[in-house]
Write a structure and sequence with these properties.
67% of the residues lie in helices and 3% in strands. The chain contains 6 helices and 2 strands, in the order ααββαααα. It is found in: Endoplasmic reticulum membrane.
């Protein structure tokens, strides 16, 4: 028997996935009509190429978040699926990519040009920005080199500007946070 929170999460996931499928279907149908009926833009290949990531992420959301029910007619919840509304998870980025794709689909329909897909470069740019915040501290730490060693020697040598207590506190800060075990 599933708990109330699992049932609540399952119903929330189903509602979100159904809404996502409906909006995606409408926008992609309008894009296809604009391409093949109106002939704007002239080629459908850029739309297809740039929509594939959205389709794959939508499929991933469906396979991860859609709950599983028993087949014996009792409609019992077997698996509630992962929480796709969880803040700070990878699913949050999935939704961002899907929303950007929808926006660019609508811009392609309105403007009638495939040049709007250049704005899709926002996604890798944002990924580089996020990764740089993670990687740069390691690079800066290693680039200190000789200047960092000279400053450390000056501190240990009895720098008159700071007291011994301040030097100890500075050394602790540079060492990093202490690991506490229970």
């Amino acid at each position: 028997m599933a708990s109330a929170s699992a049932k609540k999460q399952a119903s929330s996931n189903v509602a979100m996935l159904n809404q996502l499928a409906l909006i995606s279907g409408i926008i992609n149908l309008l894009a296809l009509l604009a391409i093949f009926v109106l002939g704007r833009p002239a080629s459908f290949k850029p739309w297809l190429f740039w929509s594939v990531p959205s389709f794959l992420l939508h499929y991933s959301l469906e396979s991860s978040g859609r709950p599983t029910y028993s087949q014996d007619g009792k409609n019992l919840l077997i698996r509630s699926g992962e929480d796709i509304r969880l803040k700070g998870s990878l699913f949050e980025y999935y939704f961002d990519v899907i929303y950007i794709t929808w926006f660019l689909d609508i811009a392609m329909i309105v403007l009638g040009s495939n040049k709007v897909w250049y704005a899709y470069l926002i996604i890798p740019g944002f990924a580089v920005y996020k990764l740089s915040g993670f990687i740069l501290p390691f690079i800066k730490k290693n680039k200190g080199g000789d200047a960092g060693a000279e400053a450390e020697q000056a501190q240990k040598g009895g720098n008159s500007a700071t007291s011994k207590r301040q030097q100890k506190l500075q050394a602790r800060r540079e060492k990093g946070p202490a690991v506490k075990y229970r």
